[in-house]
Amino acid sequence: MTQIFKDASTQEYTDLSAFLGTSWVVLAEPVSQGSIHRLKMKQGTIIPVHTHPSDEYVFVVSGSLKTGERLCEAGCFWITPKGTRQGPHEALTDVELITIRLGEMGEFENI
């Protein structure tokens, strides 16, 4: 076994077609169908209210966003248990997040 490194200069973001103004790069798959990824949201982007069938952990690297009624700025961390209603997520500035999801994304259904 060996360590795997992914320098920022080699990480290529892919646009998320479901949400204009978002792009991501998957860094690792810690469990089957799960992911550790970086997500960028351009200012004004809104991801609507939704749930996921797995637990999710989010760290705000830069920028500010509202998630529900909560203002989250750089350094903020939150945990969302599976099946929990979350959002909407609104980028008040350009935002970068690191998200760890412990299972599949599931069908992304608006509530």
Automatic annotation (TrEMBL):
Coiled coil: none
SUPFAM superfamilies: RmlC-like cupins
InterPro entries cross-referenced by the UniProt entry: ChrR-like_cupin_dom, RmlC-like_jellyroll, RmlC_Cupin_sf
ChrR-like cupin domain sequence ranges: 4-105
Protein name in UniProt: Cupin
Biological source species: Aphanothece hegewaldii CCALA 016
